[in-house]
Design brief:
The complex is a heterodimer of chains A (about 425) and B (about 525).
Chain A lengths: L1 H13 L6 H18 L6 E5 L12 E4 H24 L6 H21 L5 E3 H26 L8 H19 L2 H25 L4 H26 L1 H4 L8 E2 L9 H6 E2 L1 H19 L1 H11 L1 H6 L4 H27 L11 H11 L4 H24 L5 H19 L17
Parallel strand pairs in A: 1-3
Antiparallel strand pairs in A: 1-2, 4-5
Helix pairs in contact in A: 2-3, 2-4, 3-4, 5-6, 5-11, 5-14, 5-15, 5-16, 6-7, 6-8, 6-14, 6-15, 7-8, 7-14, 11-12, 12-14, 15-16, 15-17, 16-17
Chain B lengths: L2 E10 L2 E11 L4 E6 L5 H8 L7 E6 L2 E3 L4 H6 L2 E4 L11 H6 L13 H15 L14 H14 L4 E5 L7 H16 L3 E6 L2 H7 L2 E6 L2 E6 L5 H9 L17 E11 L5 E11 L3 E5 L6 H8 L7 E6 L2 E2 L5 H6 L2 E4 L3 H5 L6 H4 L11 E2 L2 E2 L1 H14 L16 H13 L5 E5 L7 H16 L4 E4 L3 H7 L2 E6 L2 E7 L4 H8 L4 H17 L1
Parallel strand pairs in B: 3-8, 3-9, 6-7, 7-8, 13-20, 13-21, 16-19, 19-20
Antiparallel strand pairs in B: 1-2, 1-4, 4-5, 9-10, 11-12, 11-14, 14-15, 17-18, 21-22
The chains are: A mainly alpha (about 425), B alpha/beta (about 525).
Chain lengths: ~425, ~525
C-alpha cells in the first residue's frame, strides 16, 4: 500500500501548478473598471425598469447613480483581484464563486456605465433579458447538436449548415402546407439530412470530420441560396411566406416580473429549447444511454470491449444532433422573421460551436454560454435604441469579442471528449 | 467452466497469425501463454474474446461449441479479459467504468449505480482489492486500475479471466500483489489465462505453460521447466539468458550531471536536482517505473529541454544550453525510448535512417549534395554487421519487425566514435533473440571505453547490464546502488524509498522470510 500512497503524493506535488492567468485577467478587468466605470463614470442616474406599465405586477424601477456604482464596482473588482493574487501566491485555488461574483459585478458596472452615458439613461431590464433569451434560442439548439455529436466523438462543424437547412425547410414546408407544425417537422428532417452526410462520410468513409463539416456548411449555404434566388423569389407567396409561431402564454406564471416572460411566454420552439436542455443533460449524465454515449466519445475501444457498438452509437447520435439543430433552425423563419433569406443564420452556427466549448461540452454549460452570447448581441440592439456614445461598430463586435475571450481564456481547464474527431476503426 | 480451443487458425490476408492452436483451460488453474512479442498470443486471445473471428477452428465451453460475434457474447459466456492497455475511461469513476455495458437501470433507463457500487465493494472486500467505487480512474495508480479491470470481469461473473501482459506496467511490489490476487482467484475456482513473455513470472504463477512461437503451439510444459528450456522453446534456438559480461574496468569520470532540474509545464519539477556521474567503461542503469522522470533525464542531456537547469558536463564541456546538433557532434549517441516516434522515420529507407543525424557530414555529403551511393554502401555494411533481417537496405524501415528496427537505431548510434552512449528502453518490444544481440553490442561499447547510460523499466534488463544502478522516483534520484543489488531493494526504491531506507528494510524483509 505504500506504493499507492507514494504515487498519490507525487501526483499531488506534481500538479500544484501556479497559474497566474486568473489574477492577471482579473487585474486587467479591474483596471478597466477603475478608469472607465469609476473615473469615467458619468454623473447621471442609470434607470433599469423592472416592469412595464402594462404588467399585472409592477415593481419599482432600479435607479443607480452611475459614478457611485462605478466606484463600488471598481473597488470590489480590485478586492477580488487582490484575493486571487494572494490565493495563487499561496498555491491555493481560487473559489469559483469569486469568479462568478467578479463576472456579475463587471456586467453590472459595465451596464450602469454604458446606460449612464446614453442620451436617455433608461433601459428595460425585462426587455434586455427576454431579448437575450430569444436571440440565444438558435444558439442553444445549435450547441446541443454539438454536444450530442461531440460527446460521441464526432466533431460537428456543420451546425451552421444544420441551422440554415432547418430554417429553409421550415419556411418552405410551412408556406406550402400552411401549418407551422409541418414546418417544424420538415426543419428537423432537413437537419437530419445534413447530419446523415456528415455521419456517412466521417464514420463510414473516415473523411476528416472538420473538412466534411466545413464543406457541408458551404454546400447548404450554396444550395439554399440558389433555391431562394430561383424558386422562392419566383413565387414567394407560395414558397416563402410561412405563418409565424404564436407565443403560448401560461397565465399567472408569465406575470412574474423579468423571469416570467422568458420562462412562460414563449413559442413552442422556446419551450422545446428548455425541455431539450434538461432532457439531454439528464440523458447524458443519468441514464444508461448517456453513459454509453460518453464512453464512446472518450475511449471507443474500451466501449467496444464492453460490447457497445461504437459506430452505430455515433451514427444515431449524429442524426439526433442534426434533428435538434434543424429544429432550432426553424426559429429563424417561424419565430424571428417570416421569410427565408440567403445565409440568414449569419455564422450563428459557429457561435453555437463556441458556446459548446465555453460550456465545456455540457448541455447546461452550453445553455448559459449561449445566453451570454445572446445577451451580448441583444445589448447592442438595446443600446443603439437608447442612443449611446459608444460607436455602433464596437457594439457590433461585442458578441464576437465575448466569444474570443470565452474560448481563449475564460474557459479554464476544459477538456473535450478524448476521442473527438478520431474515427473508430476496428483493427 | 472448462474452456477449450480446437484448431484455431487466424489469417490476416496471407499472414497466418495463429496456426491450428489447441488449448485447454480448466477451472482453478493458471494457464500461461508464453511467447515473444508478435508470436500471436494477443491475436489468439482476441479471437477468444470475440474481437476477431477465427478463420478456422472451434471454441468449446464445457464441451459445447460456441461462436462469439463480439466481446458481449464472450462476456455472456463467462470470459473476462484484462487488456495490456487498460480499457478504462479515465474521466469516469470506478463505478461508471464497471457498470458500462452491463448497467443496472431503474425505470426509463435511469442508471442505478448504487447496485454497481455494492457489487464493487463486495468483490473488493472479498479479495482485499481496496478500491473506492467513487474514485476517478485517472487519479488511481496503475496497479489499482488493473484491479478495476479485474473487478469489471468479476462483476460480469467471469469464470475464465484472461490477463494480457499484466505485469508490463507494474512495479515489482505491485506484481507481487497481483500474483497474490491470482492465487486467491484461483482458489475461488476461476480459470486464469496469463499471457506473458517474462519467464520469471510465468514460472512463478502458472500451473501449465503453453509456449507459442510464430503463431503455432511449440509445446506444453510444467512450470518446473528451467528458464533456459522455456527461453529456447520460445525463441526456437538456444539462447544464453545471462550475458556473462566481464566486470567493468572504469576509467576516468568524463560525464557528470549536477543538480539537473527540469520544470514541467505548470511549474512542478519533472526532474528534481538529480546528480550522478558515469566513468569511461561503465554502465549506469537508470531504473524506475515508467513516467518518473527518465524521459526528461535523457532528453535534458540531449538538449531537448530548453528550461532545464543545473549542469551536464561531458569531457569538461558544459552540454546544457547547447543545441541538439552540437551535442550530437560532441559524440553523444542516443537511442530514444520510442523508436517509432523519435528514432526512425518510418517511410524512409533503412539506408536513410542509418544516417539521420549525420546526413550532412562527410562521407555522406559533399557541400550541398548527398552521396546516395556512399549512404547505401554504409547501410549494406551495417545491415550485415548488426544482422538486420531485411530483403534490402532500401526497404522502408517501417516494414521491419520491432527488433530489427531497434537494430537500425543502434547501428546508427554506435557507428560513430562516441564519448557518451545513452539508450532508453533499448530492448522494448524486441524479441528475446535480438535482446541478447543488442545487449552484447551495448557491453562492447562499454568495453571500448565509452560511458554508457541505460534507462529501462525492466528490472531483468537493469540487473543484466548495470555496473551501477540509479533509481528515479517522482523525478528525484533515490540513490545509486551497486549493479548486484537485489530486486526487493530496487523495488522499494522505485516506490520512493531512499537507498539507505530500502537497504535497511530489504534486509529486514529477507530475515523475516527466513524466519518463516
Amino acid at each position: 500500500m505504500s506504493i499507492a500512497a507514494s504515487v498519490n503524493d507525487s501526483r499531488v506535488t506534481g500538479s500544484s501548478t501556479r497559474s497566474w492567468k486568473a489574477p492577471i485577467g482579473f487585474g486587467v478587468g479591474a483596471l478597466l473598471a477603475l478608469f472607465v466605470f469609476a473615473l469615467g463614470g458619468p454623473a447621471t442616474t442609470a434607470v433599469f425598469r423592472v416592469s412595464d406599465d402594462s404588467d399585472r405586477f409592477r415593481l419599482a424601477d432600479i435607479a443607480l447613480p452611475a459614478n457611485v456604482v462605478g466606484w463600488v464596482v471598481a473597488i470590489a473588482l480590485i478586492a477580488i483581484t487582490v484575493y486571487s493574487y494572494l490565493q495563487v501566491r499561496r498555491g491555493a485555488g481560487i473559489n469559483q464563486w469569486a469568479g462568478i461574483a467578479y463576472a456579475f459585478l463587471f456586467v453590472v458596472g459595465f451596464l450602469t456605465w454604458v446606460v449612464g452615458i446614453a442620451d436617455r439613461p433608461t433601459i428595460s431590464l425585462a426587455g434586455l433579458v427576454a431579448g437575450s433569451v430569444t436571440l440565444a434560442i438558435p444558439l442553444i439548439f445549435g450547441s446541443l447538436s454539438g454536444v450530442l455529436c461531440e460527446r460521441v466523438g464526432v466533431v460537428n462543424i456543420a451546425i451552421e449548415g444544420q441551422l440554415l437547412s432547418g430554417a429553409f425547410a421550415a419556411a418552405v414546408a410551412a408556406s406550402v402546407s400552411g401549418s407551422v407544425y409541418v414546418g417544424l417537422i420538415a426543419a428537423a428532417f432537413a437537419g437530419v439530412l445534413v447530419s446523415l452526410i456528415l455521419a456517412i462520410f466521417s464514420i463510414k468513409y473516415l473523411v476528416n470530420q472538420i473538412i466534411v463539416g466545413v464543406v457541408l456548411n458551404v454546400l447548404v449555404s450554396g444550395l439554399t441560396g440558389f433555391l431562394a434566388s430561383t424558386l422562392l423569389s419566383r413565387d414567394s407567396a407560395t414558397f416563402n411566406s410561412p405563418p409565424s409561431l404564436p407565443d403560448i402564454r401560461i397565465p399567472l406564471l408569465a406575470d412574474i416580473p423579468v423571469i416570467g416572460p422568458i420562462l412562460f411566454q414563449q413559442t413552442i420552439v422556446g419551450y422545446f429549447m428548455y425541455a431539450a436542455v434538461i432532457v439531454i443533460w439528464l440523458g447524458l449524465y443519468r441514464t444508461k444511454w448517456g453513459l454509453r454515449v460518453r464512453a464512446v466519445g472518450e475511449h471507443p475501444q474500451a466501449a467496444d470491449t464492453m460490447g457497445i457498438k461504437v459506430n452505430s452509437t455515433r451514427f444515431w447520435n449524429v442524426l439526433l444532433g442534426g434533428a435538434v439543430a434543424g429544429f432550432g433552425g426553424a426559429f429563424f423563419t417561424l419565430v424571428s422573421v417570416s421569410t427565408f433569406t440567403r445565409d440568414m443564420t449569419a455564422g450563428q452556427g459557429y457561435i453555437a460551436l463556441a458556446a459548446l466549448i465555453f460550456g465545456r461540452w455540457n448541455p447546461i454549460g452550453a445553455f448559459f454560454a449561449a445566453l451570454l452570447f445572446g445577451f451580448a448581441t441583444n445589448l447592442r440592439f438595446v443600446l443603439s435604441i437608447i442612443g449611446t456614445d459608444v460607436p455602433s461598430q464596437f457594439l457590433a463586435m461585442l458578441p464576437y469579442i465575448v466569444t474570443i475571450l470565452a474560448v481563449a481564456g475564460l474557459v479554464g481547464r476544459s477538456r473535450p471528449p478524448a476521442a473527438g474527431g478520431i474515427p473508430y476503426v476496428k483493427e | 467452466m472448462k474452456l477449450e480451443l480446437q484448431g484455431i487458425t487466424k489469417r490476416f490476408g496471407s499472414l497466418v497469425a495463429n496456426d491450428n492452436i489447441d488449448l485447454v483451460v480448466n477451472p482453478g488453474q493458471v494457464h500461461c501463454l508464453l511467447g515473444e512479442n508478435g508470436a500471436g498470443k494477443s491475436t489468439l486471445m482476441n479471437v477468444l474474446y470475440g474481437l476477431y473471428e477465427p478463420s478456422d477452428g472451434h471454441i468449446l465451453v464445457d464441451g459445447k461449441p460456441v461462436t462469439f460475434r463480439g466481446p458481449g457474447d464472450a462476456m455472456a459466456a463467462g470470459i473476462g479479459m484484462v487488456h495490456q492497455h487498460f480499457m478504462l475511461i479515465p474521466v469516469f469513476t470506478v463505478a461508471e467504468n464497471v457498470a458500462l455495458g452491463d448497467e443496472h437501470t431503474k425505470a426509463g433507463g435511469i442508471l442505478d449505480l448504487d447496485k454497481t457500487r455494492a457489487r464493487i465493494r463486495e468483490i473488493s472486500d472479498r479479495y482485499g482489492f481496496d478500491v473506492d467505487p467513487d474514485a476517478l480512474v485517472e487519479d488511481l495508480p496503475v496497479g489499482v486500475q488493473q484491479r478495476v479491470e479485474i473487478i469489471k470481469a468479476l462483476v460480469r461473473k467471469a469464470e475464465v479471466l484472461i490477463l494480457d501482459e499484466p505485469t508490463a506496467v507494474l512495479t515489482p511490489q505491485e506484481t507481487d500483489e497481483l500474483i497474490q490476487i491470482i492465487e486467491e482467484l484461483k482458489a475461488g475456482g476461476t480459470a486464469i489465462v496469463f499471457i506473458s513473455h517474462k519467464l520469471r513470472e510465468v514460472k512463478a504463477v502458472s500451473d501449465v505453460i503453453t509456449v507459442i512461437r510464430r503463431g503455432a503451439v511449440v509445446g506444453t510444459v510444467e512450470p518446473t521447466a528451467s528458464t533456459g528450456e522455456l527461453a529456447s522453446m520460445m525463441v526456437g534456438r538456444q539462447v544464453s539468458l545471462s550475458l556473462n559480461k566481464a566486470p567493468a574496468t572504469p576509467g576516468d569520470t568524463t560525464f557528470t550531471v549536477r543538480d539537473l532540474t527540469v520544470p514541467g509545464p505548470g511549474g512542478q519539477k519533472l526532474l528534481d536536482n538529480v546528480s550522478f556521474e558515469i566513468s569511461k567503461g561503465e554502465i549506469l542503469a537508470v531504473a524506475g517505473v515508467q513516467g518518473n522522470g527518465q524521459t526528461e533525464l535523457t532528453e535534458a542531456i540531449l538538449g531537448l529541454h530548453p528550461h532545464a537547469s543545473g549542469s551536464v558536463r561531458l569531457n569538461g564541456k558544459e552540454l546544457l544550453g547547447m543545441k541538439v546538433k552540437d551535442i550530437i557532434r560532441e559524440g553523444v549517441g542516443f537511442v530514444p525510448e520510442d523508436r517509432k516516434v523519435d528514432g526512425l522515420v518510418g517511410s524512409f529507407s533503412i539506408a536513410e535512417n542509418m544516417i539521420l543525424n549525420w546526413y550532412n557530414e562527410p562521407p555522406f555529403a559533399k557541400g550541398m549534395a548527398m552521396k546516395p551511393s556512399v549512404v547505401l554502401k554504409n547501410a549494406r555494411e551495417k545491415v550485415a554487421e548488426f544482422d538486420v533481417r531485411t530483403q534490402s537496405a532500401e526497404a522502408p524501415v517501417s516494414t521491419l519487425s520491432g527488433g530489427n528496427q531497434q537494430k537500425v537505431v543502434l547501428a546508427r548510434e554506435l557507428s560513430r566514435p562516441l564519448n557518451l552512449f545513452i539508450a532508453s528502453q533499448p530492448t522494448r518490444g524486441v524479441d528475446v533473440g535480438s535482446i541478447e544481440f543488442l545487449h552484447k553490442r551495448i557491453v562492447t561499447e562499454r568495453d571500448g571505453g565509452t560511458p554508457v547510460m541505460i534507462v529501462s523499466t525492466e528490472l531483468d534488463e537493469i540487473s543484466e547490464l548495470a555496473d551501477r544502478i540509479a533509481v528515479l522516483h517522482g523525478g528525484e534520484l533515490m540513490g545509486v546502488v551497486p549493479g548486484d543489488t537485489s530486486r526487493d531493494v530496487l523495488g522499494l526504491m522505485m516506490a520512493g524509498m531512499t537507498a539507505e531506507e530500502a537497504l535497511g528494510q530489504g534486509q529486514h524483509r529477507d530475515t523475516g522470510e527466513t524466519d518463516r
